[in-house]
Write the structure tokens for this entry.
Amino acid sequence: MNLKSLLASGVVVLLMSSLPIAAFGESYGAAGAKSMSDKSFTLEQMLRFAIEDEYLARGEYQKIIETYGSRKPYSNIVKAEERHISWLEPLFTKYGFALPADKGMESAVLPATYQETFPIGVTAEINNIAMYERFLKQELPSDVKDVFIRLRDASKNHLAAFQKFQTRFQ
């Protein structure tokens, strides 16, 4: 292999490593739920996509805090993501499913400026709400349904916060 080919291979590997979500494909979190063409999911799939999406949100917000400091709304919302994960974890135990690995920090995408974080937050919350809306159209055990409703409603609050901050920086 010549130097030019070696450098080109290195650039491809480097570029791929800078796109962490691509490492998980479109089968992780809300993106995974959205990519499934089936109209129905198993309970295990719904719980997996739900907790993965909460991991993703927490990882994203932790990276933003690490880079730009503990500022609102992230300082509040990251704590909420912790609660959301804690609501989902007991359901995995109750229904006998393995808890997926937390890959949220690995997949966090950090924009160049603090202002650019808000459109990402808006999109993430819209996708999260859509995922829960889709799940809630299915037959669910009452405890799972209650958690999904709380998670969807929390995402609506997060969406409003991101939209408010996005407006401030426009």
